[in-house]
Amino acid sequence: MSDKKAQTRERILAAASAALLQRGPAEPSVGEVMGAAGLTVGGFYAHFESKDALMLEVFRQMLCRRRELLEQMDSSLPADERRALVAAFYLSRKHRDASDQGCPLPSSLGELTRLPESFRTVLAEHLELMTAQLAASPEDAHKVLADIALMVGGLALARALGPCELSDRVLRAAKSAIV
Fold it and tell me: Whole-prediction pTM value?
């Protein structure tokens, strides 16, 4: 792939990431994504076979970045301390209010049943990998899954409420229930 084509592809992926984070994978149109990338719709199919293919790639990349952040944590910390640190970041005002970087799950989960099965496959793989990263032992996996569900649900509620006192309370309550 030429440098120019690779750069154009990256612009499309960046625009699609922002759209997915704000509105989920189903709603943004190809025209909207291409416009946000400063490109015309006509060039889209030189890079992706369909909108679903683009959004699946972006969804996969965004989830992979979340796991890469976990890899940067000190692995010598006890598992419960690592989960508490993850919760402190994930359930923060900064993460709630992030419009360009953040977890795509709160904006995407409700749409996954209407999208190709490959989206659910990527989600399942992500959950299994995150669980393995955060669990101290196989027996700990159940607690880790519960913590992930609480974090994603808490963030989804907080984002839906927007920046307000109740939203802040949701974040604090979910954080306090982790570990």
Answer: 0.90
